[in-house]
Design goal:
This protein is mostly helical and 102 residues long. It has helices spanning 3-13, 38-45, 71-87, 90-101, and strands at residues 17-20, 26-29.
């Protein structure tokens, strides 16, 4: 199957979409977009693999006790990104696209 089909089915498996069969069928959101944080969408498409905890400079060990030169700043960035995906709802970004297209 193509990428789009796989992605839609993955979103349905995680409960973000529901599949509607038959003529005129397809996929629709399982909840209102105001109730879906972007984090759920991102994690459904790209499950967390610990990438945010990897060292930006490629060191084998990088943690608060043995930080690399970029550790503190990289932690700030990942915290901001995590906050953005947790606090931003799907409706926040789709409404801007819909407003622009009208």
């Amino acid at each position: 199957r193509n990428y789009l089909s796989k992605t839609l089915h993955r979103l349905a498996q995680t409960g973000l979409l529901v599949s509607v069969r038959g003529p005129g069928g397809g996929f629709q959101l399982a909840q209102p977009p105001e109730e879906i944080p972007l984090r759920r969408v991102v994690e459904a498409v790209e499950p967390p693999d610990g990438a945010e905890s990897r060292c930006l400079l490629g060191r084998a060990r990088c943690n608060p006790d043995d930080p690399c030169a970029a550790h503190a700043r990289w932690c700030e960035v990942t915290e901001r990104v995590d906050h953005f995906f947790g606090e931003t709802m799907l409706a926040d970004i789709t409404s801007r696209v819909l407003d622009r297209d009208t």
